[in-house]
Amino acid sequence: MKKILQDLSFEELENLILSLGEKKFRAEQLHKGLTLGKKISQINISPALRSKLLEEYEDEPIKIIKTFRSSDGTEKYLFALADGNVIEGVLMKYKYGNTQCVSTQVGCRMGCKFCASTLGGLVRNLTSGEILSQILTVNALHGGTAEKRAVTNVVLMGSGEPLDNYDNVLKFLKNVSAQNGINVSARNISLSTCGLVPKIYDLANENIPLNLTISLHQISDEARARTMPVAKKYSIEEILKACAYYFEKTGRRYIFEYSLIAGENCGKEHAEGLIKLLKGKPCHVNLIRLNEVKERGLTTVTEKEAYRFLGLLEKGGLSATLRRQIGADIGGACGQLRISYLSE
């Protein structure tokens, strides 16, 4: 596989152009074209420069090979990478703008029992440019530019554990928020992790004011370990300490995702346990009705049960919301589309 030009920051692109004996302004032309989601072969540069670049760099590091549209307007994409691997992403449409969910790895090695992403294990990490290209491609698809983006918000909640691909994700965060690029504010970016504690500290020290989201899903380490193997390594207490440090460094409250699983974590005692764990902390609880994955055998709760659980949390003094279910009719859960495609 060739290198990915979208991996480079603008400064790195300038250095590359100068090393090829080209004028500095060529870097700006090239960078603008890439930001618009164009292939190298589509950008208005000299044939000689184009030829040099295509010898080393992928013309199109990522492309949409299938699109699925939900009745609620959600779009799910199956992307092909240059090496033949496939990943997926989702564009969710809200009143305040369009949020794109991006993948950070091909597959995942975290082994969470409710997730389809991990069914085939981890194949490889995505480069920073492959993560960025998902946004550039979808933004272009919907007529967006850098000045007027069609993709207004980004969530790193697709296939893969972002903090397990830390270096590439960190570079992506810097490139996606660069003012001379697609310029998505860090405050409009959310990163979801299953709780890799050392990397939470590392991220906090970068002082990037994004929204940190932790997949919690249980109130005790023992119960959490039944569905999330990572709980055997990092305790809830360790996660809470890391989150407190993140808040101290960034001033950003943190969010806990809590997928409601029938018979597992949605009783009154679980609500009381969450209140005991989190009350008074600068956090928010995002309740999710489980996206069912047939290979996992776990089932979700009814809407009535979900709102009952939400009411218990609110009565107990927690900031909490129930996420609106979207994209369920097109395989909304992480990894479902990819697994379906691979099994065809």
Structure description:
By secondary structure, the chain is of the alpha/beta class. Helices cover 35% and strands 19% of the residues. The strands form two sheets. It has a ten-stranded mixed beta sheet with strand order 1-2-3-4-7-8-9-10-11-12. A two-stranded antiparallel ribbon has the order 5-6.
Largest sheet: 10 strands, mixed
Range of helix content: 25-40%
Unreliable residue stretches: none
Mean pLDDT figure: 92
- Would you report the number of β strands? 12
Q: Summarize the helix and strand pattern as letters.
A: HHHEEEEEEHEHEHEHHEHEHEH
Shape: elongated
Q: Hey, roughly how much beta strand do the residues contain? A: 15-25%
Continuous helix count: 11
> Measured on Cα atoms, how large is the radius of gyration?
21 Å
Class from secondary-structure proportions: alpha/beta
Distance between the termini: 25 Å
Strand order of the largest sheet: 1-2-3-4-7-8-9-10-11-12
Brief synopsis:
The chain has 344 residues and is α/β, with parallel strands linked by helices. It is 35% helix and 19% strand. The chain has 11 helices and 12 strands.
Give the secondary structure arrangement, pairings included.
Layout: H1 10-19, H2 25-35, H3 47-56, E1 62-69, E2 75-81, E3 86-94, E4 97-101, E5 105-107, E6 122-125, H4 128-141, E7 153-156, H5 166-176, E8 189-193, H6 197-206, E9 211-215, H7 221-227, H8 236-250, E10 254-260, H9 268-278, E11 283-289, H10 303-315, E12 320-322, H11 336-342
Parallel strand pairs: 4-7, 7-8, 8-9, 9-10, 10-11, 11-12
Antiparallel strand pairs: 1-2, 2-3, 3-4, 5-6
